[in-house]
Write a structure and sequence with these properties.
With 792 residues, the chain is an alpha+beta fold. Helices cover 27% and strands 18% of the residues. It comes from Ensete ventricosum (Abyssinian banana).
Length: 792
């Protein structure tokens, strides 16, 4: 005890703002349930496993630790299983997370001799007792927060609910016997809360569901809210209310009044259909659905080195699937596993390793590849959590730090960017460069002269040419069958569905195919013209990632997922895609300086200005409106003008250099929305500026100004990356398929991601914490394909 008293200066009582770790080691995945338990440093409040605590003592000199151990309690054999009723983990009515209960014990340990003192004990110094009590209390609050982290996002109150106008047209809705006003559908029916009309819901991709009559009714009337019949009960909180202008399920605080208006006594109605949340819950209760997850197959569980699963933290499958693939590549294995030990990473890290990317990547690599945490627990493995890694990789990123589902492609690019930043100045150590390559674009104008642009990228994004499907006869027959079924009011059976099959080669051909660039400014002709653009690769990466553009916009700017199969061979050769640069006999377009750029690009359109001025607006203000909306049109300029009438600089003279005029700022959320539709960031910003920030008008502007995308493409540079840059690898164009990430769901921001990786001579499925020998890998259903270059 005297030894402990002599070290009290190295003991701190945690403040409310201190981060406290007591569930997981900062440099390994050891927990209180591990063989040696967990040691919490009573000075830094960082936890260490049995091996890491010694390293921490050597590095920091902190000698006093709270030792936590957990041992399983016997589980009664007659313990009842409860069906979850709430989309949450570990809360009343949610998923039962505690299959095994643990008994927790504590002691105070002094290093370097590992002297142990019991806790709780009145003999311990008061400072130690207060420090430990504060740690235990703080952890309890954190644990409760983690368990509730998967609770579904609360529905927002609709902006249209409180002032909803209802039409007294004599409609009285009966308690049963409902049918669509425009067809014979008697299920999936929606009651419009303005006029009481009943219509069927959205038609699904396979022909099932409704006939879109509810949506069409909204487009005709603009009546905003509808309630799903069959979900109405006395518990109005569980009723499905949809807002068409807000494009989301919402809460209507006045729903009882709105229903009563049409004679609906909600207290007497019985629920007959599942709500949207219940359907989501039903899917989450059975993660092994769909061919992607190889449901129905007897998948052999795998354990050991390289076969460690990852715990789903609540919609973290996008992250888990990418990291499983990444740590199958030689570059990342070498950098963070073979050539960097846990101790080395810890010693190099700052005082808090939880905020060091290098330390957390090394921790993850050793966790996945060592096999230490991959062993059967009741015929399955628990997997390791990505908590600390997610915290550091998603720092300052609004979306990845949330509990919402994200696009695996966006995360992959963000991850590689962070790794490149973490290895800045050390290109020879940077494993992200194994994915990097140079794209070269060639533009030829009617003058015969050419221009070359280079840019670096990590992925090759490919459009899917559905007209190149190899099973067109079967598709035509299916379309006829679907039309006949719709006339009969019948649904298409799942075994009758025929999907297009498009060869990967056709997708690659689209990338290199000549493309017209309209309104291209030719410095040789000193005028706008139409140029021909072709693209190729200056370098071939060690690992080629192909992104299949399965998410497109259909009519009405509605995001849609293409239900298509891609026939992907095990070996591809893209040698024909190598660009050759400037060829003998070709003449480059003259370079243009800032003063040579077309002078009318940001000069106000006199037509727009005169029309606005005729409406009574100040002439100078009209000029600014036209310039700041890139001369998009009178309506766009007026929208800008009305929202900037009170700007402090609205009366300031226009700059003599029109190119220095700063366009209006845009809402980053709106930019992200357009990017999620598949548009480039610069195009999205340009469209929003041209439409006064209105997303719908911005989307319309993009479709009406296709030259915008082309001009952005031609303006992109490789940020100083040269084709012969030693930081960018190069080699042969022959590749073998080594992994794919597949997506289940209608959007990249919902559903589920699964990875399949070819290793040790067989395909392996990584589905969160489930790892097994794949029987039927869905090679034709991938969202991202990973190819490894064949050397020699």
């Amino acid at each position: 005890m005297e030894l402990l008293r002599s070290h009290l200066s190295r003991v701190r009582i945690p403040e409310p703002t201190n981060r406290i770790y007591k569930t997981e080691c900062c440099i390994s995945f050891d927990t209180p349930r591990s063989e040696g338990g967990l040691y919490v440093d009573l000075c830094s409040f960082i936890a260490f496993g049995k091996e890491g605590v010694g390293w921490n003592y050597e590095k920091s000199g902190n000698p006093v630790y709270l030792h936590i151990q957990q041992r399983p309690k016997p589980v009664p054999e007659d313990r009842p299983l409860k069906k979850p009723t709430l989309l949450a983990i570990g809360v009343d009515g949610g998923f039962d997370h505690e299959e095994t209960e643990y008994e927790e014990t504590y002691s105070i340990v002094l290093l370097p001799d590992y002297m142990s003192l019991p806790f709780p004990s009145v003999e311990l110094p008061e400072k130690v007792r207060l420090a430990v009590d504060a740690i235990l209390i703080a952890e309890g609050a954190k644990r409760k927060e983690q368990l509730a982290s998967w609770t579904a996002v609360k529905k927002k109150v609709s902006a249209y609910a409180m002032n909803l106008q209802q039409i007294n047209n004599g409609v009285v809705v009966p308690p049963y016997g409902w049918k669509c006003c425009k067809c014979d559908k008697s299920d999936n029916l929606w009651l419009n809360l303005t006029d009481g009309m009943i219509h069927c819901g959205h038609r699904n991709w396979d022909g099932s569901g409704g006939n879109n009559h509810a949506t069409e009714h909204y487009e005709e009337t603009r009546y905003p809210l509808a309630v799903k019949l069959g979900t109405i009960t006395a518990d109005l909180e569980g009723v499905d209310v949809f807002s068409y202008p807000e494009d989301d399920t919402v809460e209507d605080p006045l729903l009882a009044e709105h229903l009563e208006f049409f004679g609906i006594d909600f207290s007497s109605l019985q629920k007959t259909e599942m709500t949207t949340t219940e359907k989501e819950l039903d899917q989450n209760m059975n993660f092994d659905w769909n061919r992607i997850q190889e449901s129905g197959q007897k998948v052999e569980p795998l354990f050991g080195a390289g076969y460690t699963g990852l715990v789903n933290l609540g919609n973290s499958c996008y992250m888990a699937s990418i990291m499983q693939v990444v740590f199958t590549t030689r570059a990342f294995i070498s950098r963070y596993y073979e050539h960097q030990s846990l101790k080395m990473a810890f010693v190099m890290a700052p005082s808090d390793p939880t905020v060091d990317l290098n330390a957390q990547l090394t921790k993850l690599a050793h966790g996945l590849l060592s096999g230490k945490y991959s062993f059967p627990v009741q015929e399955k493995q628990e997997g390791i959590p990505l908590c600390m890694f997610k915290t550091i990789i998603a720092a300052n990123h609004l979306e990845f730090s949330s509990m919402r589902q994200q696009d695996a492609l966006e995360f992959f690019l963000h991850f590689l960017d962070q790794v490149e930043r973490g290895n800045a100045g050390k290109p020879e150590l940077d494993p992200s460069r194994s994915f990097k390559f140079i794209i070269e674009e060639r533009l030829k104008c009617p003058s015969g002269k050419v221009a070359y642009n280079k840019r670096s990228d990590y992925i090759l994004s490919l459009t899917i040419p559905l007209h190149k499907a190899t099973n067109r006869e079967q598709l035509e027959a299916f379309d006829k069958l679907k039309a006949e079924k719709q006339l009969e009011g019948k649904d298409i059976a799942s075994d009758e569905i025929v999907r297009p099959r498009v060869p990967l080669e056709a997708c690659l051909d689209c990338f290199s195919a000549p493309e017209e660039v309209h309104d291209f400014y030719s410095s040789a002709l000193n005028a706008k013209t139409t140029a021909i653009k072709t693209a190729g690769l200056s370098t071939f990466p060690d690992y080629l990632v192909l992104h299949m553009q399965k998410f497109v916009l259909e009519e009405g700017w509605v995001p849609k997922k293409l239900d298509v199969y891609i026939d992907v061979p095990d070996v591809i050769d893209i040698t024909h895609l190598r660009s050759k640069g400037l060829q003998p006999g070709e003449e480059l377009l003259p370079e243009t300086g800032p003063c040579d750029v077309e002078p009318t690009h940001f000069v106000a359109s006199e037509d727009i200005v005169s029309k606005l001025a005729a409406m009574g607006f100040n002439y100078l203000h009209c000029q600014k409106a036209a310039i700041n909306t890139a001369n998009a049109g009178v309506e766009e300029a007026m929208t800008w003008l009305l929202s900037h009438m009170n700007d402090s600089d609205i009366d300031d003279p226009i700059s003599q250099n029109p190119h220095r005029i700063e366009l209006q700022s845009v809402d980053e959320t709106s930019v992200e929305t357009l990017i999620s539709f598949g548009f480039q960031e610069e195009v999205a910003k340009k469209a929003l500026k041209a439409s006064g920030g209105d997303i719908e008008k911005a989307t319309d502007w993009i479709f009406n100004h296709p030259e915008a995308s082309s001009s952005v493409d031609t303006e992109l540079t490789s940020s100083g990356v040269q084709a012969d840059d030693p930081a960018v690898p190069d080699g042969s164009g022959r590749y073998k398929l080594m992994a794919l990430v597949s997506h289940i769901g209608s959007s990249t921001h919902c559903g589920h991601y699964v990875a399949h990786v070819y290793k040790d001579g067989r395909w392996v499925i990584f589905n969160d914490n489930k790892v097994g020998a794949s029987i039927d890998p869905p090679k034709d259903m991938g969202y991202l394909y990973f190819f490894e270059r064949i050397d020699g």
